[in-house]
Amino acid sequence: MKSTLFTILILTIISCSKQSELREAFNCNVDPPENTVAVYDFNKNFKLNIPNNWKTELYYDKYQSEMFTADTTKQLTSTFILDASFNLGALNFDEDFQKKTDSILTAKNLQKVNSGNVSFQSKPAIWYLAKGEKNSFNYHQLNLTVQLSENTYFNAYSEIYGDAHVEIRICEAIAILETIEFLQ
Questions:
Q1: Which CATH number fits domain 20-182: 3.40.1000.10, 3.10.100.10, 3.40.1370.10, 3.40.50.300?
Q2: The whole model's pTM is what?
Q3: 177 — phi, psi (to 5°)?
Q4: Of 54, 76, 145, 179, which alpha carbon lies 20 to 30 A from 47's?
């Protein structure tokens, strides 16, 4: 009986500590932020746990409901900006999607550093990390797109300015994104 309970306990600990595919892709070991508040997008399609000292703005139109948030108490090169949106529309992670993504990056003078396909909350997702220059700063952008249904998808991107602690700030953005709860 003791060995069975011990085995169950060990398996529970191991399964709870398993990192998401996205965290594994970036070798993240950053915990979710503390002192957060649940923030809902305007149309209540999703909620994220955002640090309570961050400034958050909401936007919506008939095709999307968007949340824009950042820590405005820090210098831009010490934090990151996070934009998350629930979108209406069909989305396929096919060759056309890749071409469209590449053309957007080219138009913004960004170079794709890395990319991959993952499962994000049991949904198919694609991510990429790009770098370039923006507003006279070295700049990184992490983009995550998740297909939620045949006619809806979630998109989030994080803008990381400067060169200090880029990997940590990417992992902090991922930690916030992983607090998402899709409400539809």
A1: 3.40.1000.10
A2: 0.87
A3: -60, -35
A4: 76
